[in-house]
# Entry
Amino acid sequence: VRGEVVIYKKDFAAINERRESLGQKLLANPRNAAAGALRQLDVANTQQMPLRFLAYSLGEARWGQAELCHFQHELATRLRDYGFLTPPDGKLCADPAAVEAYVESVRQGRADFPMEIDGAVAKQDDLEAQEALGFTARAPRFAIAFKFPAMQVHTRLTGIEIQVGRTGVLTPVAQLEPVAVGGVMVTRATLHNEDEILAKDVRVGDTVIVQRAGDVIPEVVGPVLEERPSGARPFEFPHICPVCGEPAHREPGEAAWRCGNISCPAVRLRSICHFVSKAGLDVQGVGQKWIEQLVSSGHVTSPEQLFRLTVQDLLPFARMGDVLARKIVDAFDDARHNATLARLISALGIRHVGEQTARMLAAHFHDMDALAAADTQRLLELPDVGPEVASSIRSFFESPANQHMLAGLREAGLWPVAAAEPAEAVGEGGPLQGKNILFTGTLSMARGKAKQLAETAGAVVLGSVSKKLDILVVGENPGSKLEKAQSLGITVLDEAAFLNLLADRMDA
Ligand SMILES: [Zn+2]
# Structure
């Protein structure tokens, strides 16, 4: 049975009331709270949350949904009869106009739903027709989602706090008089950057319009000028880092002020959080809260230290028991053994190097030493690497602090090579599954490496050009194979296009 896990608005309010009375940080919204509860390592933590499962369809049914019952609305009744909680509303509509009228009535009544909703879904009622319609690459053809506009309210801007992110960027955050937006209390909202504050002309003391949609961070839309108190002054963006006190800089053409202090405690904390996050090594099941505690208590000052933690190191922390400590140590151990080079590169947080670029670099360089040794010229030859990315990669590896950190990672045993890549990056099937491929001419990478990349992507490497060949990858001075392939109408790619093909398909 397939469905969705939610937290009801009244339950969410109760959780936050309790957290407030205990002096704990308030949860931002029910959606993230529910997702976070499901990701907890310790089931006891999950059980503390008032999660509800709302069933709305069958996943893999052995005999097919259409044979179990014939209509979507019938399925909802069945699920309820079996004892499942189902979404609280729903209506069988005879035609598109009826669907639109119903969606509108849901939109108007959205505040009365027990859980937050950000839209409604219309589904083809006939389950056989659903099966016949099937899916596109990313969505079912038998269902349409109607998204509701963001909800807006007015409240007072009591202050503007400056937060320091992973790259040292200073981000202004609006402090708001608590206000309910669609049943959820909002106390903070993003203001993005200095220009945004100036453009919107929001001033401390203003009544502001705040909007929020789903799990998106609430946003300040603008001030209500008629209600501006006399004496409200334009906000002066600070030119020093509020955490370490070092001067901040705003480079020409950039919107952001940055703290340039590489040992700024805020930058360090956010970098380490990024290192283990989904965009980094994707360490499973260690809450950000624990990372924050480890860093702010001074136990961890650099990512590699996470991989040296022992149960004894962790036990002194409040609410930490043997079982949880063991799980955390194991989680880092797992990450150490399963990390791929692509993930590690992405985890380093090199500016302008996101997950896709990290995959391309891993596929190309094979190991971290080769990447670290690559000069600007060499980097610029790669697909998707421009001067900005190349110089960012160079300056990362030239920094003594980063070299020290990399040495620590190697020592801690976190030093994957690209050979470990395919299982994670490509997954079952592989992007070149069933393709026959051949390399000719001089490639910038070793021929063996190119073959390995192709094979792990699912291709078969042939020895000569024939009608069976699907792709010919040509390097410099390709010779007669190229002519023959062209005469047979076979797809011819250069090395960059070949790597792009791998990266793109992996990404998809
Ligand atoms: Zn700083």
Remarks:
- The CA atoms of residues 154 and 209 lie 5 Å apart.
- The chain has five domains: 2-147, 151-249, 265-338, 341-422, 426-507.
- The radius of gyration is 27 Å.
